[in-house]
């Protein structure tokens, strides 16, 4: 396998993009500093090696099913026995879950949502009595150190029976099978407040096992970033008498073309206006469908996108992928899939402020990616 390459240093930007800019993410309201001049700073560090193994002893490989917990779901074209070979995708519980069901209550998801505080208030998808500023016990001092059980489900979706380190190495049929499994498991948890689908690829991405897999977290709260997007989508819809915020953004991206990477009948691939990371891409369905799990499109474009990143940044390319879908009960939303190559670590500035610095403009990134596709 080749070494992951250092970040591509683009050619000098046009004059109107040569100075740092503050850009605002239309979906979340978050700010990003786009500072292409920082691409020229000295760099004494090189990207680390990632040399995937042959997979010997890998618990996710076909034939090693006994090394994982019993499967939750699997696609078996020939209807083989559960927890044995013959699958194209397979889902198992995560052995080290971030959220989990309390013992004895797995069959009663409604019961685990009703966890009242001492004043009798219950958690909701968007607020919790554990928040000291929202605590219902106004007659007493709020508990600044309250906690709540992390209720939910955490699953691993194994993308291939073969020891494949990158989804770029999956052929069209295998990638389609993996995406079917992602959507199937998201639908299985549709009663959860929010279902997050992610994929980490490579050690720099946060992955702990190299065999390609996605993870699903079904939670009984809506993460703040998703809640902000939902609020802004709703506010825009109300202000415009029914328009889709992301749909309008996509229409303008297609018209302008400078951040559009590719487009087909189902989806478009763009470098977002306020990209937080170099060569960040967003896959957007051309129709405003609320839920990724209720759609079927985008798989072919996703394959093109990851293969382009692999060609640019090494085989395999280290990356993160996540799906933004509608929370439970939200009808008006527009799912999208975000994809970033892991090229540079976060600095103290990003961690201190929550404001990312991107040294490659989305316009320059889109031009490079169009050529790579």
Layout of helices and strands:
Blueprint: E1 21-24, E2 31-34, E3 73-75, E4 89-93, H1 109-113, E5 152-158, H2 172-188, E6 194-201, E7 213-219, H3 224-239, H4 245-256, E8 260-263, E9 267-270, E10 281-285, H5 299-313, E11 319-324, E12 336-341, H6 348-353, E13 356-358, H7 362-372
Parallel strand pairs: 2-13
Antiparallel strand pairs: 1-2, 3-4, 4-5, 5-7, 6-7, 6-11, 8-9, 9-10, 10-12, 11-12
From the structure above, extract its key features:
373 residues; alpha+beta; HIT family, subunit A; 2 domains; 10-stranded antiparallel sheet; 3-stranded mixed sheet; 7 helices; 22% helix; globular; disordered N terminus
Q: How many β strands by DSSP?
A: 13
- Secondary-structure-based class equals alpha+beta
Which descriptor suits the 3D outline? globular
In the sheet with the most strands, the strands line up as 3-4-5-7-6-11-12-10-9-8
CATH superfamily of the largest domain: HIT-like
The residue-averaged pLDDT reads 87
CATH topology term of the largest domain: HIT family, subunit A
Task: Characterize the main sheet.
Answer: 10 strands, antiparallel
Highest-level CATH class of the largest domain = Alpha Beta
